[in-house]
Amino acid sequence: MKKILRKLFATLILAAFLCTQAASALGGELPSLDFSDRNYLLPVDFAILDQRAIEENYTENGYQDSTIAVVIESGRFEDRCDYWTADITIKDPSQIRTSAAKGDFRSKGTRDGLELCNILNAVLGLNGDFVNGTEKLDFGYVVRQGVLFRDNLDTAGRWNSHLMDVLAIDEDGDFHIIRRAKSGDIAEMKADGKRIMNSFCFGPALVVDGETVQDFDGADTWMNMGREYERQRIAFCQVEKLHYKVVCCSGPYTNTSTLMKSTGLTLTDFTRLVGQQGVKTAYNLDGGDSSLLYFHGKRINEKPNQSIRKLQDVIYFVSAEGL
Known about the structure:
single chain, about 325 residues, alpha+beta, 4 helices, 21 strands, about 15% helix, disordered N terminus
């Protein structure tokens, strides 16, 4: 009886989530792009996809089917900080997806990131940019699944938005960094003929055109990211066409298995770590207790006794096997 009730409860939660996604994601007042001219494997919308990864294809450190391959690795940076990487190759740009915790990217609602990734049938997931964090004061440029939720690059606010780097992912799944974005910069990029499927406002950019960024002056006057403090950090990266990488370092902690201590990394040190991963483009996302690297139902960047912040949004990859 308890097992039946648990299944019923899980079904009700999923149904409620689907309803909020469908009801709010494509509000009539929100501009959205039509990708019907592209022969994508998956629809570019906010629906939770029925297909799941093939359970027997999972290994301890990876997953592979005909549409997606994931390899999880861990390491030690300069013998002072643990880190984890996820290498992801996909068949189609539509397999990169985004979701809001409460079904609408205008909502400030939060949800446990593991729970959200499980609901979404993610093969791999990571935290987004905390899309409606109080520090942002409703500025930035936010496109998710082709829907424009925010276009405000001219408000300085408490933190100077004119020092913000924007990450735009186009319809081919390619990354574009708009350094210190201002009104008009995004439109110029779209004029090149590439529509934006998703965009993020956190930053800063860590690697651009294969070169690590050296100048972070002004980074802390955009967001209070504590660039000189040793913290847990996470970056979303592109290696090449339809090939991506997530890099996450630990914060200060002691590994209970090895008894080795980690310090966390400053933004400059984290950039050096990311720059060693062979990526073409890398973008810093919301770190600290928001850092989530999800794989096969678990949080990979786990450490004992760590507070885990609930998230407003996630980025995730799905399988398109069988389609």
